[in-house]
Design brief:
The structure holds two protein chains of two kinds. Chain A is mainly α. Chain A has 16 helices and one strand. The longest helix of chain A has 31 residues, at 279-309. Chain A is flat. By secondary structure, chain B is mostly helical. Chain B is built from one helix and one strand. The chains are: A mainly alpha, B mainly alpha. The A-B interface holds A 2-9, 12, 14, 16-21, 24, 52, 54-55, 58, 61, 113, 117, 120-121 and B 2, 5-10, 12-13, 16-17, 19-20, 22-23, 31, 34-35, 37-38, 41-42. β1 (7-8) of chain A pairs parallel with β1 of chain B, so a sheet runs across the interface.
Chain lengths: 315, 52
């Protein structure tokens, strides 16, 4: 019989959760989710086909919940390493507010709901892309690459880069070169962004046994690779203008922002090996977030203004 | 307060369980509304166009 004797939970050894809804919300990685929503919105709006605003909102919600579900599954699997890293030890699972099993169930249920909702109410290509994104982030990145290769965030970055493609597919039912370029911008932005963080958090990653680039190849090699990716990302972000997807206003802004990215990456490249404060790496990390947000914000604004001037329907 | 297993919940556990129950209820209600409204939006008046 499963019933336990009368008494307090402490007496009987039964664990009764004290997790509040906010703890479950934290499992969704809301800050990552906000970037996913934003980049998916750009894909939705940039698509050349008008979409019912209600269906577009549902598509965004489903994409956001799917991204959140993959975050919960990531926290379920990574609870052991989150425990030893200062940046992550207050997360709900390592802090003991939510059990790994609860995080797993939460992530699986939300994954299923988000994919089915997107498929039934929007289209099945977008749903398949969302399911692939969740699978790629949880199985390929979290379970396999993260603990086995310094290229973990390079390849794993594909999961974080897919939301604009899903947004585009939600509207058009297909994948295009324009949405692929938006994918490439996020994909190639990911290594310099995360390696800047890994430079000043290398002790944390080392303690957790994660083979980040500075821990495996050394700080000097990481700084060179950050600069190499920056040389690629700066002109790549300008190509949507060169291909005629957006106006010269975007092109000029992307050029200026790219020059800023290169300048910060150059400061990191010149950083001395004995620099303990690592201010250039911290500055590049902060700037990289501002950079990606600005690139997509300007892309969104440019698209909306162009559609408005053309007399088209936005979203 | 005893639950059905005879386990006594602390005030914090009761408060957390109530908050979680409300959150699940609201999420389910939102899901029902989303599917209802989206069905109307996708099909429009055609939703009534069916053989009797």
């Amino acid at each position: 019989m499963a019933l336990v004797d009368s008494g307090s939970a402490k007496d009987t050894g039964v664990r009764l959760s004290e997790a509040m809804p906010g703890d479950y919300f934290a499992l969704l990685k809301p800050r990552v989710m906000s970037l996913v929503i934003f980049t998916a919105l750009v894909g939705l709006v940039a698509a050349p086909v008008p979409l019912n605003p209600l269906i577009a909102s549902i598509a965004l919600l489903a994409i956001a919940v799917g991204a959140g579900a993959s975050g919960a599954l990531n926290m379920w699997y990574d609870a052991d390493i989150d425990q030893v890293m200062s940046r992550t030890r207050t997360r709900p699972v390592p802090a003991g507010r939510v059990t790994p099993g609860e995080a797993l169930a939460f992530g699986l249920v939300l994954s299923f709901l988000s994919v089915m909702t997107l498929g039934l109410l929007v289209n099945w290509l977008a749903a398949a892309l969302l399911a692939f994104t969740i699978f790629f982030y949880v199985v390929i990145y979290t379970m396999w690459l993260k603990r086995s290769t310094p290229q973990n965030i390079v390849i794993g970055g594909a999961a974080g880069a897919l939301p604009p493609v899903i947004g585009w597919a939600a509207v058009t039912g297909e994948v295009s070169l324009e949405s692929f370029i938006l994918f490439l911008i996020i994909f190639l932005w990911t290594p310099p962004h995360f390696w800047a963080l890994a430079l000043f958090k290398s002790e944390d990653y080392g303690r957790a046994g994660i083979p980040m680039m500075p821990n495996v190849a050394g700080a000097a090699s990481t700084r060179r690779q950050i600069f190499a990716y920056s040389v690629i990302i700066a002109p790549l972000a300008v190509t949507p203008w060169l291909l005629g997807y957006v106006s010269i206003a975007y092109g000029l802004c992307a050029t200026a922002l790219g020059a800023g990215f290169l300048w910060y990456a150059w400061q990191v490249l010149r950083m001395r090996d004995d620099d303990r404060t690592m201010k250039p790496a911290k500055a590049l990390f902060a700037y990289s977030i501002l950079y990606l947000f600005s690139i997509f914000a300007i892309y969104l604004l440019d698209t909306i203004v162009t559609k408005f001037l053309d007399g088209g329907v936005v979203a | 307060m005893m639950d059905k297993n005879g386990v006594e919940l602390t005030p914090q556990q009761r408060k957390a369980r109530r908050a979680r129950s409300i959150a699940i209820g609201l999420a389910l209600a939102a899901l029902v509304i989303i599917f209802y409204v989206a069905t109307i939006a996708k099909f429009g008046p055609a939703i009534l166009d069916r053989p009797l």
